[in-house]
Amino acid sequence: MVTASNNCFSDIASVTITTITNITATLNTFPSSTICEGQQAAISVTTNSSSANYLWNTGETSSAVSVSVSGTYSVTVTDACGTVTVSESINVIPQITLTANASSSLYCPGDVITLTASGADNYLWQTGQTTASITVTSAGVFMVTGTNSCFSESLQISVTQGYVTDVSITSGDSILCSSSETIILQSVLSGNASIQWNTGETTSSISVSQPGTFYVMAVATCNTDTAFFNVYDKSVSVEVFANPASGMVPFETQLTQTSLNADAFSWMLNGNEVGTDTAYLYTMQEPGIDTVWLKASNMFGCTDSAMVTIVGETQSTVFIPNVFSPNKDGINEQFKIVFGNPSAVESVSVEIYNRWGVKIFDYQSVFGFWDGRTYSGEEAPDGTYLYVANYKLKDSEAVEVRGTVEKTGSSR
Q: What is the pTM of this model?
């Protein structure tokens, strides 16, 4: 205050000075900084400035905002004397998504099944237990309630009662007697169960054509049974041999065999059994062809048959001509030894000599012949020639015959 005066008058004047303090701000949240999903929190600013301006990190410029998402919300408050920033963290409690499962939905006697819940903060089972996982030893429907600070949700888990049934499968071994055979493996099941073979089939029987071990499993609700089937290859094979296979009658031939998996033999001739040994000595009495069969078998019922033919021959007649005429008239063109039974000839050799004793031709075949020409291919002159013939018939001694043959009708 100041006073001014003169000789006549006086006056008083005053000045008011206001002191402004620094700006301050605080945040108030309603109903709380922790809210439930679906709710909103109102955040308002309290400041000591009557002329303050506001800028929230959400972009709003009012003194209060409403939010529904978790996060940190800040506001900058400004007036002529300064700036201040304050913040508030909002936590939104979400809805519960409760899940529950069982380690097995089927209870069999003696099982211990674990029930597990997830998705909540706290759990309460109808058994009174409050852990996320519990164990049960019986079938039934089990309820669990999951909660957090805002919400609650309940679920049920069903555990079905399984039963032990009288499940059994009867099996056995089987025999294959040939590679082309197919046999049926038949399982005999008692009890209510499903069937599963190791081949993939689910029928009570399967067809197999190969040896091996096969198994089938019967599966009931709480127990199983497995049966094994062994399939063995016991096929029989046999071959028969005759030594000799032919000869001049009468003669004996030894019949032998080689076989696999055979332990019984039956030699058959004309439908009649003539022997049961592993070998058979057969006498060929008459000329012709006899067929001997051998049936081989084993204790498993597998069989195979084989046959051998035996040729009975008569003593062969031998004819040696004494003249021939290779003149191309188609009559008596060749000199050759003619055998009545060529199959009875084991060997033959014929040599032709001229009158000076020079060998001019020979042959060693039962069907060979001399056509009147020499080794060089030239036609020999007409005249008398010496032959030396050696031959052997089966079951006979070797024979040598010397003689002459007259060649006529030369084409020279």
A: 0.45
User: Nearest Cα to 326, choosing from 387, 390, 405, 391?
Assistant: 405
Q: What is the pLDDT of residues 291-330, one digit of tens each?
A: 999 999 999 999 999 999 998 877 667 889 999 999 888 7
CA 222: distance to chain centroid? 30
Q: Are 365 and 330 in contact (CB under 8 A)?
A: no
Q: Determine the Cα–Cα distance for residues 221 and 160; give it in Å rounded to an integer.
A: 10
Encode pLDDT of 69-83 as tens digits: 999 999 999 998 899
Please state, as a whole number, how many other Cβ atoms lie within 10 Å of the Cβ of residue 267. Answer: 21
Name the DSSP class of 65.
E
pLDDT tops 90 at residue 395: no
DSSP per-residue codes, 163-202: -----EEE---EEE-STT--EEEE-EEESS-EEEETTS--
Domains of the chain are 25-93 (2.60.40.10), 99-161 (no CATH), 168-231 (2.60.40), 237-313 (2.60.40.10), 318-407 (2.60.40.1220)
Q: In what order do the strands lie in the sheet with 288-297?
A: 246-248, 303-313, 288-297, 264-269, 272-275
